[in-house]
C-alpha cells in the first residue's frame, strides 16, 4: 500500500474546507434568494438631469450667451475666467460649518464652455441677477470673419493609349 494518498489527503484538507465555504456562500447569495431585490425597476438618469433647468446656452447671429444657476453661492464665491483663448470657466465654491461643530457643508460648481469660432472672448461680460442666475455674454466678432472663395482645380484622368 502506498503512502502517497495519505500525504495528499492531509495537504488537501484545508482546500476542501475552503471549497465547502465557497459553496455555502454561493447558496446564500444565489440570485433566487434575492429575486425580489434583483427584479426591482431600475431608474435611469437621463443625460442632463443633474443640470439645473435654469441653465441654458444660447447662440444666435449676434452673441453667445450662457446662463448658469448659482443661487447657492455668494457673489464673492464665484469666479469667471477665460481658458485657452476660446473657453470660459465658471468656478464657485461655498464652505459652511454647522453651528454644532459636528458638520461641514461644501458645495462646488465647475462649468466650462467652449465658444464657437467667431466670438470675441475679450469683450465678454458677466452679470448676476437677484434670483441667482449668472449670465455670460460674448458678442460675435463680425470683422474677424472673412469670406474666402476657394478655387476648384479639375484633374483629368489620361486614358492609356493602346498600341504602345
UniProtKB/TrEMBL annotation:
Per the UniProt entry, what are the Gene Ontology biological process annotations, in alphabetical order? protein refolding; response to heat
Q: Which UniProt keywords apply?
A: Metal-binding, Stress response, Zinc
Q: Which GO terms describe its molecular function?
A: metal ion binding; unfolded protein binding
Name recorded for this polypeptide: SHSP domain-containing protein
User: Where does the record place the SHSP domain?
Assistant: 58-152
Q: Which family does it belong to?
A: Belongs to the small heat shock protein (HSP20) family.
Q: Its GO CC terms? A: cytoplasm; nucleus
Q: Which residues are involved in binding Zn(2+)?
A: 94, 96
Q: Does the keyword Zinc apply?
A: yes
Q: Which InterPro entries match?
A: A-crystallin/Hsp20_dom, Alpha-crystallin/HSP_16, Alpha-crystallin/sHSP_animal, HSP20-like_chaperone
